[in-house]
Amino acid sequence: MMRRTWVIKAILVVSFLALTILGGLGLYEQRRFDIPIVAGPGVTKVVKLSDYSQGLKGTIADTLVFILEGKEAGGKALIMANTHANEPEGMLAALIMIENAVVDRGTLIIIPQFNHSASRNTKPGDGYPLYFEIETEWGKKTFRMGNRDASPLDQWPDPDVYIHYPEKQLLSFIDARNTNRTWPGRPNGLLMERVTFAAMEIMRREKVDIAVDIHGAETMFPVTNCIVAPEKSLRIATMAALTVKAKEGFDSHVEPSPVGFRGLSHREIGDHAETLPFLLEAPIPFLDQPTGPKTEKFLLDGKDPFLLSLARKKKLFVPYDESGWPVEKRVGQHCSLTMEILRQHAKRVPDRAVEVRGVPRYADIVKNGVGSYFHDPAKAERSKIYLN
Question: Residue 154, Cβ neighbours under 10 Å: how many?
Fold first, then answer.
């Protein structure tokens, strides 16, 4: 009897270990999966974020920074995506710019994986897919599906309460791993504080005029489908929103940056640098809670029967029907709004203009699909391919 009991226990232990290994293997592989980025004709230089903050060297938080310099002098703009890596439309928009944009005047700086640790983290407890695929003319391009916060494998332990630097505002413990709560950062702080500090150093050293932080937000969250801007950026944000509505037919209202809520890019960048900050939010139904399964299909097409029912009861903050909120609309909005913000700034300060061509606008991306603007790494020059 005793022997039988020990055999059963041994079988259970082995089964548990086998399931643990099998379950962890997918997460292990996803964390080490690299996305190939093809540097387009406008990319003149690629550096690392650690070039602006030594505290990032050798860490997984270090990430690629693509620089596109024009032949004529002008202003400088910084584009950041994947601050929250479970909002992939920002990364897709940034990659479209990297692979297609050409700068005629000024300089465009793009960080497609701002929270690199979060992009290699996921949320299996919520059933997130590990990857998603975008159809292209040459096949499917695979991307990691990340998480909102950096991995605890890279920054641990979490504090009981996160004390924001330098304002000392008390925030949730998990905000210590959220790179839209750790601005303006500090060189020797927590790893995510070092990430935001490095970005601030880019803006201060390079004298960046415009910073655009690209996000996605729930349809049930009021701050969605909008441009968030502090006082000094509101005029440009308003003109950009009005122009895309009149010329391109989509809505994106303006939300003022709250003065009392610290750690946010659209607040701290403007307070700690001369740069004009903007944060873009496109609706991403995948992030809403009362939905069906968190599938790859849902992530891309934004269609969900539960949200449709809530829309009919006027519980959502954006228009929602059977067409959902597909990724083409979300990425298209980000590309158009970013380019329009640059155009509006150039009208106000002509000698600091950043003039960019080659970036598709909203209607083009909705019509042609996101994948139409990605180049095949198999056919690109090896020197043009970067893994991130």
Answer: 18
Joined together, the tokens standing for residue 150 give: 């950096």
* Residue listed under structure tokens 């504080």: 193
DSSP state of 74: E
Extract the tokens encoding 312: 């009919």
* Residue 353 exposed, middle or buried by CB count within 10 Å (0-12, 13-18, 19+): buried
Q: Please, are residues 91 and 123 in contact by the beta-carbon 8 Å criterion?
A: no
What b/e string do you get for 267-298 counting C-beta neighbours within 10 Å, with b at 16 or more?
bbbbeebebbbbbbbbbbbbbbeebeebbeeb
Token pair recorded at residue 219: 């349809």
Q: Are strands 45-48 and 64-69 parallel, antiparallel or unpaired?
A: antiparallel
Q: What is the pLDDT of residues 190-232, one digit of tens each?
A: 999 999 999 999 999 999 999 999 999 999 999 999 999 999 9
Residue 111 vs residues 65, 274, 288: alpha-carbon distances, Å: 5, 19, 26
Contacts of 47 (CB under 8 A, 6+ apart): 64, 65, 67
Contacts of 342 (CB under 8 A, 6+ apart): 77, 210, 353, 354, 355, 356
Helix (H) or strand (E) holding 322: none
Domains and CATH numbers, the chain: 33-387 (3.40.630.10)
Per-residue model confidence as pLDDT tens digits over 8-43: 777 787 777 777 777 678 888 999 999 999 999 999
